[in-house]
């Protein structure tokens, strides 16, 4: 387990924060924390080789109003999927080599699909009319069932080089919690850069300032049990310039926002012959791991049996044999009585 990485960051107003039993936290200043000098070098370090198993990095968000309130996020970072790996290449080739008959539906599949279409149409036509209160009650019941089945939601944020930032959040969290998690994972030099999370296709942007998403949980946004999002960095909003007439009475202007190359953040290209790296903290980049391959559903692959399965099959064969012997004895007994 990695040491917790504590960042004094502003927690959104409706973000959940729970007291931590750890050591006494340091008070958070109201102003944004200055960038650490140790991580502000311009030369990118050598890229860490992916590990076989993922390592979890803990990100801690501390409320500026009450330092005793904090929230821990567990993050993992996965390297881009390699097309040259033997496992992925073999899996892709096996699906490409499937015959055309595999994609032709059978008669039973067509009958099943036709029956399901008829049942769905009858349900839409013959179902009773519901009031808004009954619909809301049914929706709440479905959400409770879904929350009991999937109490946590797995979120993966995809960067320009197809690398993934993964986090597991409670399904009752809101969109502001997700933005806080991603912001803590970013490098301190780019945390002031606004970003938006979106899905495509169709392109749907989930902005935390959008009133349509205000108060909605990850379950309400159909992110449960898991979803994948893209990230796009946008130009920082510059404060409006003050006129000379009001400059004498107005407070001093805020520090200018440092310039940011958005193309370098949104596109995985570099001109200095160095490998592009996502703008994440160094601890996550050092904990990079290979993304586990999904299970294979190739019907031509033989099923791998385990010793437990063989034992279960042998037990089933013994039960069938005992039943057959019992029927034979009963048949002989009844035949002898008839004679």
UniProtKB/TrEMBL annotation:
Origin: domain of life: Eukaryota
Biased composition (Pro residues): 22-31
Composition skew (Polar residues), residue ranges: 48-64
Compositional bias per record (Basic and acidic residues), positions renumbered to this chain: 298-331
One GO BP: intracellular protein transport
Positions of the UniProt region annotated as Disordered: 1-90, 234-259, 291-339
Gene Ontology CC, one term: cytoplasm
UBX domain boundaries: 148-231
Sequence ranges of Low complexity compositional bias: 37-46, 76-90, 240-259
Name by which UniProt lists this protein: UBX domain-containing protein
